[in-house]
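W.,

You were right to be curious about this one. When I first looked at the sequence I had no strong expectations either way, so I just let the prediction run and decided to look at it fresh. Below is the sequence, 126 residues in total, followed by the output.
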Amino acid sequence: MFFDPFAIQYVNTVIVDKINELDHQRVSLEEQSQSLKKIEEEQEKEQRKLSFYASVTKIIPNLENRSKIAGQYATLCLVILHYCYTLTCYPDIVERDKKAVENFEFDPSQEDAFDICNNTWKMINL
């Protein structure tokens, strides 16, 4: 049985090249995995920030349309309940914990940034 040394060297070179290529792919996949993990962590962090912002200000921004500042905000409504029974009428009872959600939208191309800021503060302070 005869083995050509050049053929053996060629096969070894091809195998080493393939191993190096696979190693580069492995390193690239590890880097992509780390990058993806970092992006997911940043998204979770931003989600927590947005949740905190919404719980403090009661404003939920609409992030779909970046050309306008829009979203929803919760307002406290005073709901007056009348309790009347056959002969006895109770005074009106005010419930302060009832909330309503209202939409808002500001167009930065048509409104001054100062006015948008003031209106946002007004929504927060409701």
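Here's what jumped out at me. The beta strands are 59-61, 69-81, 93-106. And, maybe more interesting for your project: DSSP finds two helices and three strands in the chain.

Coffee later to discuss?

I.
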